[in-house]
Amino acid sequence: MAVTIKDIARQAGVSPATVSRVLSGQTEFYSEKTAKKVKKTAKKLGYQKNTAAVELVTRRSKVIAVIVSSTQTNFSDQIIDGIQQEARQHDLNVIILYAGEKDPQMERKALETVIERSVMGILLVAVDLNPANEDLLVNANIPYQFLSITLKNRKLPFITSDDFQIGYQATKYLVDKGHSEIGFAAADLNSVTGQLRLDGYRQAMADNGLQLNSAWVLGGDFAYEDGVNAMKQYGREPEVTAVIASSDLAAIGVMNQAQDYGLRIPADLAVMSVDGTKLCSIVRPQLTSVTQEFFEMGVRGMQRIINQPAKAAKSTFTPFKIIARQSV
Amino acid sequence: MAVTIKDIARQAGVSPATVSRVLSGQTEFYSEKTAKKVKKTAKKLGYQKNTAAVELVTRRSKVIAVIVSSTQTNFSDQIIDGIQQEARQHDLNVIILYAGEKDPQMERKALETVIERSVMGILLVAVDLNPANEDLLVNANIPYQFLSITLKNRKLPFITSDDFQIGYQATKYLVDKGHSEIGFAAADLNSVTGQLRLDGYRQAMADNGLQLNSAWVLGGDFAYEDGVNAMKQYGREPEVTAVIASSDLAAIGVMNQAQDYGLRIPADLAVMSVDGTKLCSIVRPQLTSVTQEFFEMGVRGMQRIINQPAKAAKSTFTPFKIIARQSV
DNA sequence: TAGTAAAACACAAACGTTTGTGATATTGAT
DNA sequence: ATCAATATCACAAACGTTTGTGTTTTACTA
């Protein structure tokens, strides 16, 4: 039913081969005159190319797949923006798939969907694959890149912030502001990311000769609720005078709960968040944060895919900085 | 390089046809025994189906495309969740494409990408196509559905909230609370959505015998900044005692700016937002909102696509309700 | 004007799958 | 044991492109 290049060929009085070369932007094998003619009849007939056929014969596609864990946090927008920008410059299409929340089933489904379509590259943001899915990805022979996550498996290339340094610098920042009882909240302590931040936090405490109470470190899943729960643990008269929350939303959670307890921020309690999304400047008091360069992660991820097809790249860090606002 | 059904056929000693029927879940034309054998060798060889080939011959695909305007607001997540739920139940894949911010170029690109792939259906959330792109979509002969937007062109099916009623009920709610000077802020007054809400607002004012000052209605683009700008217009000693902001973010904008002016909410100024995303309960004071059922929009949109292939559906409304929190 | 090189084009195979139909094997009834 | 009916399978065409190579036309040189 749909119009094909054969229809165009017939109408324009040329061969399908010529139509193909004209329409796919090749420069050889035809004259300007026939090119004009072909393009005109293509437009007249309302031709839409059949990508399935194209990909079948060329065995490659111009789409980049982004698989994101439908995360509680909201930084993925920034990463995707970076990806889009780079994609646009290279005339690539990007499609986004949600892989749920630690849901191996959905992850597998998403992976299969994009592998079956033999996309040009796969960017995984904040998703931690189980071994089976990891195999699936690796064996697909499609360039891939993990973003905003640090993996146990060091063979897999990832681009993220240096989580140890995030923990360290955040802590140091608070110490420099005079705090010595510092909480560490809402990070997923089972994840490498959470573990590294915790390590950094511990190291910074130690380096400054500060004792730390294990009750000050409270795990979670980077979610808003984890922030409020942490604050509930700290209590109405918290021992800590400052807390590092491992996401913006979590930080808001601790702020809200603290305020419900009648605590004033930052006077009675300083709170520091990590991520630095727009949320930080929208809430009151505005959140002082460790701000990550998510956009840049997206950009670099795409560049990796484009420049190093299949070749395994090393993992790298993207810079971060501490932005002082009002909450400490 | 990749393993095909021919490879499997050879290894298993059957024909490609049989392999195809086994692997694609058909029930006829083969015995249990050969099915077992085929599946085993398929797994052994690490077979991945080539979707391009499948779609080429079957001329249909199991993917639903969601095109979203990379909106300032954040309700699209909820819509997408609804879509995903329904997709999962019908074993469909969903891919998401960003179409920028009122960017006809990107919209066209996104449309072409999905049309060329002849997806099974196209869901457009909060995107308002220009006429050219509208044609592109309509002529593609693929089921489509607009979500969370009301269109000038009534021929195009959309599912959204009744924006007139949103404006009307929000206003009425405030009037019932004793307000008579009510601002209307941050809606895009060039959009049908904004216009309808404004109409509803006006009607409610009139129905209650209230005069309205044209200075009270301030346009925008549903963004945070539009909220703060609106509040700046209202000034330190605003004539209005309540304002309806057309998005959660915008509402937060007016709250913040109002507080910067030393106004207390809701004592000095009541603010009401429309959308009702999680943001409302995260900010302090919590936002009283007109809460839309975005998830439901996604669900219904998918159902439309699934049940009414190609047939033009009527536009319908999804319910909304007013949720009282702290800001009025 | 004849000859030749290059430009313009057409042919046909190939990509990996699905599916209608024809061929063969199996089963059951008599 | 014979036959029909059915179950199991293989053949081959088709989907819409791309692309290597062969063929014709054009343009240029001498």
Automatic annotation (TrEMBL), chains A, B:
Alphabetical keyword list: DNA-binding, Transcription, Transcription regulation
Gene Ontology molecular functions: DNA-binding transcription factor activity; transcription cis-regulatory region binding
Residue span, HTH lacI-type domain: 3-58
Classification via Pfam families: LacI, Peripla_BP_1
PROSITE patterns on file: HTH_LACI_1, HTH_LACI_2
Highest taxon in the source lineage: Bacteria
Matching InterPro entries: HTH_LacI (IPR000843), Lambda_DNA-bd_dom_sf (IPR010982), Peripla_BP/Lac1_sug-bd_dom (IPR001761), Peripla_BP_I (IPR028082)
SMART domains: HTH_LACI
UniProt-listed SUPFAM superfamilies: lambda repressor-like DNA-binding domains, Periplasmic binding protein-like I
PANTHER family: HTH-TYPE TRANSCRIPTIONAL REGULATOR GALS, LACI-RELATED TRANSCRIPTIONAL REPRESSOR
Name the UniProt record assigns to this protein: LacI family transcriptional regulator
